[in-house]
Amino acid sequence: MTPPVDQPVPLASDRSVDLGVNGATHQPAAPALSATALLELMWLASPALPVGGFSYSEGLEAAVEAGLVTAEDQARDWLIAQLQLGLARSDLAVVAQAIRAWRGEVAGQTDEIGRATAIDHSRAGQVDVARITELNTWVRLTRETSELRQQTEQMGRSLLDWLRIQDRQPKHAAPRDADSPSPEAAPDARLAVLAALKPAPTWPVAHALALARSSAPLREALLAHGFGWVENMVQAALKAVPLGQSSGQRILAALIAVLPDAVDQALRLGDDERQSHSPMLAILSARHETQYSRLFRS
Question: Which among 114, 138, 210, 267 is most buried, taking Cβ atoms within 10 Å?
């Protein structure tokens, strides 16, 4: 018999616990992810999301121009380093903290694999606006070049526009998760909070709201955010180096292999541990702003 469409689907966890008995290990119970939540995450990680992410290479095109990335292995190593030294220590950590703030959670009220233990979906009345503003400001101030700052603001504004359109769509009567808004739910007042961020909502904070609106656990939401970045950067490498599709798939596999650890690192970071310090990337991005011939906006 075919299970109901929203039957919870257990996800395999890559964490294991040593029981000390003949070397046996036990996999802890993973959070149940419904079909609806899974599809929402796939949607939000899709390159089809109309935010313009395809037009940015985040310094990769400048690295190609400088001769630092000219082949598949160099592109792979460059993107793995950018994921581990950049995204994991900054944007992924911001997204994790912003999701908690958008959901009205108190920081720390999640278990060891990112499952929320106290979610409040009463929306704007419980949103930590000061925290959201603080995180948005941090993202802007740690973008080291004009083009990187313009990227995060443009993508944040575009996602806000898309979320407004989604909020105006007729609510379908399909079954939803218990923690999700009902079809009769009022427009999401959190969008007004996002729109009020000055001078613009940044991409990590805006995407965190989109992810928070799903019923997905925190860790799975961060995996979706990370995969969206990974797929976009691989596509940029294919065009900029250039590389073939098979090379792109091998790079994608390498990045997927290290993404879960990057997400776990981000989940452990506090405010005083979060950082954005990539001097070579900043130099390349600054050079890219005046690069004579280019395909990408960053």
Answer: 210
